[in-house]
Amino acid sequence: MLFKLLIFVLIYLNLHANTEIEDTYYVDNRIINSSVITKDTKNDFTILSIDKNSNTQKIKTKDLMKLLSDHGYKNYHSKKSYINFILKSPIDVSLLKLKLKEYYEKNYETIDIQNISIEPRGHITALPKDYIVNIESHDFLSKNGIINIKTAENKKIFFNYLIKATVMVYISSDIIKKEAQISPQNYIKKSVVLDKFRAKPIQNIDNSSIQAKRHIPKDTILTHNDIELLHVIKRDSMINVTMSKDGMNIIFSAKALQDAKVDDIIKVQNSNGKILKAKVTGSNKAELE
Predict the structure, then answer these.
(1) What is the DSSP letter of 50?
(2) Of all residues in the chain, what percent are helix, strand and coil, respectively (each to 5)?
(3) Residue (of 183, 175, 224) closest to 203 by Cα position
(4) C-alpha distances in Å from residue 37, one per residue of 8, 22, 23
(5) pTM of the model
(6) Over the stretch 174-191, which tens digit does the pLDDT of each residue have?
(7) 52-59 — which CB contacts under 8 Å span 24+ positions?
(8) pLDDT, tens digit, 9 for 90 and up, residues 40-61
């Protein structure tokens, strides 16, 4: 009895889950059944049919939600006014999938791609014989996007794509203050589902001398916009400055007039008050220019 009750609860939760309806569905048949949306083939019913003279059909979102609600699927929602159904094109997109796979793997050191789906934005029956694949430079930040192919006649054909993948990232385990060193004490390494990143996540910070460029809240994915090379010299600190003269190295103390990283050129002030320029070589060390 308890087992049957659990099964009923699971079915109920599945039917009544708060699920967002996709803007566009690519379908194999002209008869569109509810399972395209609900994935529930046992309680399937027809939503609409794509006209034989067309390859697309749309339905008002409110009408679709009423149909779903009448059949027990009450908590579906969408921000769009219409939902589109497009008949899948009978084309081979394996080359486009390969290009996308290479593109994402190039931008992430550790990515596990489970699936790539690609569909033309309009129904086409064949791909051109020769074409060039174009992918935007920052598309890797999102799981979905638009790519295009350019034909020999300079014609462009656009495709929607969706990638299901996980990426290894670093997440702040606590609040990280500006200019604090990034270390295992304030981050954890974790695999997350690729959705949409605000900037490129840091892929490898092991043994890196970096610090926070800004205040970073807890549970934030660390990106290249959040970090910078560690300041090895602090403003107003006393540092050792090396001056080479006649084959000899003379070391003297001077006051740093600014924060600096390795290889930065900074101004320093010696004991006589003279301001000099020096190149940072390490922690509290610099050489006269």
Answers:
(1) -
(2) 15, 40, 40
(3) 224
(4) 21, 8, 11
(5) 0.71
(6) 999 998 989 999 999 999
(7) 55/86, 55/87, 55/122, 55/123, 56/84, 56/85, 56/86, 56/87, 56/123, 57/32, 57/84, 57/85, 58/82, 58/83, 58/84, 58/85, 59/83, 59/85
(8) 999 999 999 999 889 899 999 9
